[in-house]
Design brief:
The complex is a heterodimer of chains A (386) and B (257).
Chain A lengths: L1 H10 L7 H24 L4 H15 L4 H17 L3 H6 L1 E4 L4 E4 L5 H5 L3 H12 L17 H10 L20 H23 L6 E6 L4 E7 L26 H35 L5 H5 L2 H8 L11 E6 L3 H9 L4 E6 L23 E3 L4 H7 L7
Parallel strand pairs in A: 5-6, 6-7
Antiparallel strand pairs in A: 1-2, 3-4, 3-5
Helix pairs in contact in A: 2-3, 2-4, 2-7, 10-13
Chain B lengths: L1 H36 L2 E3 L5 H4 L2 H20 L6 E6 L2 E7 L12 H11 L1 H7 L7 E7 L3 H9 L4 E6 L25 E4 L3 H12 L17 H14 L1 H19 L1
Parallel strand pairs in B: 1-6, 4-5, 5-6
Antiparallel strand pairs in B: 2-3, 2-4
InterPro entries (chain B): CMP_dCMP_dom (IPR002125), Cytidine_deaminase-like (IPR016193)
Protein name (chain B): CMP/dCMP-type deaminase domain-containing protein
GO molecular function, one term (chain B): metal ion binding
Chain lengths: 386, 257
Amino acid sequence: SEFNHLKKIKKKPSPIVDDKEKEKEKEKEKEKEKEKEKEKEDNSENNDGDKNEKKNSKKTKKPPSASQAGNILQLLICGESRFKNLKVILERVEYDKELNDIKFIGDSDDIEYQSLSNEQKGIIKFIKSNDFIISIENVPKYPPLLYEIWEDWNYNIWPCVYRAHIFSTPLISNVKNETLLEMRKYMLLAIEQAEIGKNRGHKGIGAVLIDPDSNRIVATSYDQTNKISVDKTPEILETQYLSPVVSHCIMTIMNKLSIEQVTDIKRRMKEQNDKEEKEKEEEEKVENENKTCNDEECNILSFVNLGQYLATNFHLYITKEPCVMCSMALVHSRVKRVVYGSSSRDGGLGTYLKIHTEKSLNHRFEVYKDFMNDECKKLFDSPDAS
Amino acid sequence: MDHVKINNTSICCDKNENDEKQLKIINESIEKESRKQYYIKTVEELNETERQELPNHCKFMEAAIDEGHKALKEGEVPVACVIVHKGEIIARGSNKTNIKKNGTRHAELEAFDQIFLNKELNDRFKDSLLEECDLYVTVEPCLMCAVALQLCKIKRVFFGCHNDKFGGNGSVYELNFSPISNGRPYNCISGLLKERAILLLQLFYNQENKKAPVPNKRKRLDPEELKKEMLKISETSSSNQLILNISENLGDVKEKV
């Protein structure tokens, strides 16, 4: 059923129509109007009263507070039964500013207007005097599944809530064609990596980490679960320090990323130390040399929060669905989006568990599955996860 | 081209739905069987024979907690573990997420790598992995580590306190039973030296985080204060009084209806 919702949204990029809700919206307005009119009658009709009304009308356009909304909703129901022909009547009525009253245009149907109750007349008067327009508009029936869609709906249609854990794995077909082409490019890179790994006797699984803002390839890696590579070429140096049981594709790629970042930090530290030393040499030339060299580890900690934090905002392309361990590793490293090829029996991103939507975890991300499924299946055709 | 592809993928998904169902059934049946063989217990639920070994377990857990205190001094989250083979500690590990700038460097994985990098140990455990070993952790292993432990085919896991947000051995999921390919389910015993493990964490979280951004304090007013504020507003602008009237009138309308 989840997929059905998705498909509907695909087909109609414009949100799905729900006429009843529209009518309710109108009626909401009407009823607010009713209430104001009553106040009018109750309070002495001052000139100030009109001004206040206008202010109120502006406020009603904003979402009403919870308690108010409850009351209004109840009014909606009675409004429908009382006022079936409201739109028709509204078309035949004009507001006279000088008289502060409504005029009826047309001759024959005057009786129809006369038959309206005072309350109904008041409502019409209010609508006309504040230039409200009654129309039917399309409103989304289902919750938004992507952040982009939510942005569109929330600001252009009506306020709605975006909950990351609601979305299942959105299908690739939700993506625009341009991004599809780009995704294809990166997935081909991942497949290339997988072939390198396969030639060395590992499982044919590869991954690429990409910075979507600059389109930079941050890191590439492949599965290294086999203990000794077949052709005896040295593995990528950094990942040699991972025990092979755990060195799944994603673990190695995260290790690579972290080592890159640590070297980056060390370089920065050196630069700063050099600067400090220079300044000190210029000023005092003697002393202080001992102080600058100490506490390397403490210094690393002070730099940890600078620059890129783990893999935030990065997109990951992998040929096979990651296992539960790897999907949790992705949560720990704060990835933004994951695209994978073929799915696996015990995969953590959709098949066995849905780690990326888990409520209790502190990070959630988008997952696209079955991207270039056939090509990825050729590489490593087994139900086992990466 | 692209359009053709879009159609293909959507068709593929329909076909795959049947496969997914079958996979789910397989997974469930594997999980059921492993639940029969393996267990998650608290310390209180142990047998009398198992209880006799408790002081032994506590000894190893204390070693893990000592390791945690070291991590605390380094500014890491104080989670630490010890791997024991036939009464001998063969590896110690503690969180290294900050120093290594890698969110996946948890205590358990650090300990595995220690075994792998030590040639002597590596030769000893090469094929059997950790089949005869016990793990003692201060805090429940996270989802990632819980699966990694299955992959290493560990025998038993002892942990101190539960981890409500990430715990993979009972808190969020019970991953020690789960059907992981190439993995082996294992037994879990929780609550060993629980209070000391919690104390260790409290020591960490009571520290002031100097790097943390200034928190956005949400104002939560008492209902009485709210009333006062409402009155203030209504005094300043007459329009708001009208709103108050509206809500009163609404009640009247309801009754009429």
